[in-house]
Amino acid sequence: MKKTSKNFFIETWGCQMNEEDSEKLSGMLRKTGYKRTTVKEFADLIIFNTCCVRENAELKVYGNLGALKKQKEKNPDLIIAVCGCMMQQEGMAEAIVKKFPFVDIVFGTHNAYKFLEYLNRVKQEGKSVVEVQDKEDGIVEGLPIDRESDVKAFVTIMYGCNNFCTYCIVPYVRGRERSRKLEDIKKEIEDLIAKGYKEITLLGQNVNSYGKDLDPKITFAELLREIDKIEGLERVKFMTSHPKDLTQDVIDAIAECKTLCEYIHLPVQSGSTRLLKKMNRSYTKEQYLDLVQRIRKAIPNVAISTDIIVGFPGETDEDFEETLSLAREVQYDSAFTFIYSRRKGTPADEMEDQIDDAVKHDRFNRLVEVINGSAAKKNKEYEGRIEEVLIEGLSKNDETKLMGRTRTGKLVNFAGDGSNIGKLVNVKITKANSFSLIGEQV
Ligand code: SAH
Ligand code: SF4
Ligand code: F3S
Questions:
Q1: Is the dihedral of CA 291, 360, 355, 317 positive or negative?
Q2: Locate the TRAM domain: which residues (predicted)?
């Protein structure tokens, strides 16, 4: 029997920015009749959306590409595309086609919206297409988007980053900050509500500088208050906040607006003021702790999560102790902990006092212990409470149970009916595990 529709497989590494880009690539492909498959071997088109924030993200891409060689030999019609942040690095696109000559399409983050054009070119001309743009184009609105969830959605409010933290490659691969217009954001959210979505997460590398590039200017707090007015919206979250830009008016907006959830992701990176300066983070340990205190005062039961890097060049035992003491003081609900990874082209890569691997690993383990301790303690506080839970789907490990999240982002598993997916229900928390909660619907 002749196969009538084509299948695509997409794998995404990295942050929500890449996930959202992949949802757009999927949206474009579906519009042209492609169907998504989760089995690589069944695919006529394979896309790898890459990340380069740390070295291990890159190594995964190489491994996965190498493994496709055999599949391409068996099926020469298979089209392989590689895109995303890693392709924006100087010389990377050329290196990829040299190392993996069977790759058909290479493109970057700035021209992802032209993907269908590249796909057609490959099909018509039979030659590979390698196109990466140094500079970002203006924001392209109206691309179709095929979202992973029917319950919660990411809405990007701004692209790029201007902060140039000295360890970080993101500003080089995602370009300068540019904000979407308020009307475009509102319209996207209204459309999502009409489709039944309950939770929106506003995305940007530094959402607190939203609107500075718009005319007329609008602040992030004003945007939040505008969004809160949208009829039918239940929950709004956002990430990421840069501590230097998280202003009191944003804290007040969260405290006062009904839809804004009691959850803040507030990357600290280090607890040492000396290192924060070397990282170009523009705040001190004391300023960060003061900010956390103001947040806790204004927003009862708020959950705070963070990102922390260990082993940044020049990190002494004393610097690391400052990080541990900060983590103990803040009592994070959760944290993404990272071992510093050298990135070519960033100032920190040029710093001479790089830290020994064994020291980095030892510090990493000690930090994780502190974080796990506070995360378990925070979860324990939920025992006996009744929480509003948005049901996202069936539990991963036990399909007879439901899985959802509290307004503070805690994962809750409980017995219930699959037809309730997408609904908000009250759940009594009966038991806290280290990384999730167990409850009963009331
Ligand atoms: N814009 C966000 C997220 C950036 S990337 C922010 O500013 O928080 C996500 C996290 O990766 C960062 O917060 C940082 O903790 C980590 N990261 C970035 N570059 C890194 C590097 N070179 N080595 C290790 N971790 C890094
Ligand atoms: Fe990277 Fe810093 Fe920008 Fe975050 S704020 S993306 S860590 S440069
Ligand atoms: Fe990675 Fe790009 Fe995000 S480098 S962390 S996918 S912005």
A1: positive
A2: 380-442
How remote is the CA of residue 133 from the centroid of ligand 2, in Å?
21
According to CATH, the superfamily of the domain at 152-380 is: tm_1862 like domain (3.80.30.20)
DSSP H or E segment with residue 66: helix 55-66
Report, at the CATH architecture level, how domain 7-131 is classified.
Answer: 3-Layer(aba) Sandwich (3.40)
- Let me know if domain 386-441 sits in CATH 2.40.50.140: yes
Look at ligand 2, atom 2, and give the residue with the nearest C-alpha.
165
- Tell me if 53 CB under 6 Å of ligand 1: yes
Does ligand 2 have an atom closer than 6 angstroms to the CB of 161? yes
Q: Which of 266, 363, 353 has its CA nearest to residue 322? A: 363
**Is the C-beta atom of 343 inside 6 A of ligand 1?**
yes
pLDDT in tens, the chain (442 residues): 445 689 999 999 999 999 999 999 999 999 999 999 999 999 999 999 999 999 998 899 999 999 999 999 999 999 999 999 999 999 999 999 999 999 999 999 999 999 999 999 999 999 999 999 998 888 999 999 999 899 999 999 999 999 999 999 999 999 999 999 999 999 999 999 999 999 999 999 999 999 999 999 999 999 999 999 999 999 999 999 999 999 999 999 999 999 999 999 999 999 999 999 999 999 999 999 999 999 999 999 999 999 999 999 999 999 999 999 999 999 999 999 999 999 999 999 999 999 999 999 999 999 999 999 999 999 999 999 999 999 999 998 888 899 999 999 999 999 998 899 999 999 999 999 988 999 999 9
**52 labeled binding residue:** no
